[in-house]
Amino acid sequence: MLQAFIVTLREGVEAALIIGITLAYLNKIQRPDLRKPVYIALAAAFAASIGVAILLSRFQFNEDLFEGWVMLAAAFFVVTMIVFMMRTGRKLKGQIEEKIGSLAGRGSQIGVFLFVFLMVLREGAETVLILSAVSLDSSALMSFLGTLFGVIAAVLFGVTFVKGSVRINLQKFFRVTTVILFFVAAQLVVSGLHELSENGVLPSSKREMAIIGPIVRNDFFFFVTIVALAGLMVLFEARRRQQPSPAVDSAAEKRKSQWTARRERLWMSAVFASSFVFIVLVTAEFIYAKSVNALSPATEVSFMNGAV
């Protein structure tokens, strides 16, 4: 159960963070019309992940090859999202309302849909592939419960991130989330190339695999980095907002302002606290897995009556 929970939590939080960044970004540039493609892509990717699970149970195909191509396709759309955000950030310069009309169009909806769909499909497919191995050494019910709790925790993290980052300065939000997306793209590219190289689709040398291999084996550092960046961004914003609120005319307005500030601090605290807990859990699981898989020290053997 715990292993299924950690697997689902790790993959789910990465997907939730990507969706959270997308929704928070759309809120900041005042494009609520693009939320619908996000939700449609989320539902479609969830259904596609279930389809992958069904195919795994009925047919034999190269799972690593499939995952490698999905990773590279997802990396492409992450890079396009980074370029789009950087171009938008330069265009807006505080004039969001006046500039936003130039970003309208069907192309934006298709781009947002493909970006979210491939990112969630990648995380969902990877979760299915890992859990298919986890279920071999755990009961079906406990594995299901661990998966369910992991999904719930990931969804809650995504909601708190969107709520907690609403009031963050747009330029600061651009800078931090762009760095996060760069790490995501790097992880996808390295992992995708590794899978395709191992399956002979791409040529590779011992030197290249000696570099890529350790990165893939220790890819939990990517998770820790992107979650830490998200949590620290919100934490610094929460600390910056611990200054006295501006004077208001009426007592009702003062109470409303205080309640709004308190609610924002609660959401921000939830983002940072959950980020810290997730990092601790995933790090502990990584250390435990390393200790279990570590080779035992060599011992001298002796023969007795022809037997070792």
Number of domains: 1
Sketch the major β-sheet.
none
What general form does the structure show?
globular
Span from first to last CA? 38 Å
Instruction: Spell out the helices and strands N to C.
Output: HHHHHHHHHH
CA gyration radius, whole angstroms: 23 Å
Counted by DSSP, the helix tally is 10
Helix content: over 70%
Mean pLDDT, all residues: 71
Please give a quick description of this structure.
The protein has 308 residues and is an all-alpha fold. The protein has helices at residues 2-28, 35-58, 63-92, 96-99, 106-134, 140-164, 170-198, 206-217, 220-240, 251-293. The longest helix has 43 residues, at 251-293.
Report on the structure:
The chain is mainly α and 308 residues long. Helices cover 79% and strands 0% of the residues. The radius of gyration is 23 Å and the shape is globular.
Name some characteristics of this structure.
308 residues, mainly alpha, 0% strand
What secondary-structure arrangement, pairings included, does this model have?
Blueprint: H1 2-28, H2 35-58, H3 63-92, H4 96-99, H5 106-134, H6 140-164, H7 170-198, H8 206-217, H9 220-240, H10 251-293
